[in-house]
Design goal:
This protein is α+β, with helices and mostly antiparallel strands. It is built from three helices and five strands, in the order H-E-H-H-E-E-E-E. Strands 1, 2, 3, 4 and 5 form a five-stranded antiparallel sheet that branches. Strand 4 (about 95-115) and strand 5 form a beta hairpin. The longest helix is centred in the N-terminal third of the chain and has 21 residues, at about 1-20.
C-alpha cells in the first residue's frame, strides 16, 4: 500500500514537471499573409466610386493602371484589376510533428466604363 502511494506521488510529480516544462511547447501556430500581386484592400476607393459620375481618369489615378482591359458585349471598355493573396499557416504540436497549410485567394475587380465614366463595377 505504501509503495503505491509513493509511486502515485512520483507519477504526479513527473506529470506536473512535464506540464511545466512543455507548457510553452505544446502547440505552436504561426501565420503569414501577403499579397503576391495587386491588393484589393481598396474599400474606401471603391466606396468613393459613383456610377455615372466617376471618370475613367479618376479610377486610373486612384487605383493605378489596370492589369488588363477588354471590351464587353455592350461595346464598353472594362478595366480589370487582379489581386492574389497567399496565406501560410504552420502548426506544430509538442515539437513532435508539424504541418503547413497554404491558401490562395484570387480576386478580380472589373470596372465598366461608358462615355468616359463608370457604368458599373464588381469583384469576382
Amino acid at each position: 500500500m505504501g509503495s503505491d502511494n509513493g509511486l502515485r506521488r512520483i507519477m504526479a510529480a513527473v506529470a506536473i514537471l512535464a506540464t511545466v516544462c512543455l507548457g510553452g511547447c505544446i502547440l505552436h501556430v504561426e501565420s503569414d499573409s501577403r499579397y503576391r500581386h495587386g491588393s484589393l484592400t481598396l474599400d474606401d476607393s471603391l466606396d468613393a466610386i459613383e456610377v455615372g459620375q466617376t471618370s475613367r481618369q479618376w479610377v486610373v489615378d486612384r487605383l493605378g493602371r489596370p492589369d488588363s482591359t477588354y471590351v464587353n458585349a455592350r461595346g464598353n471598355e472594362v478595366l480589370r484589376y487582379l489581386s492574389r493573396r497567399e496565406t501560410d499557416v504552420e502548426v506544430a504540436f509538442l515539437l513532435l510533428f508539424s504541418f503547413d497549410l497554404s491558401e490562395e485567394e484570387l480576386q478580380t475587380l472589373h470596372i465598366e466604363i461608358e462615355d468616359d465614366s463608370v457604368r458599373s463595377y464588381w469583384i469576382d
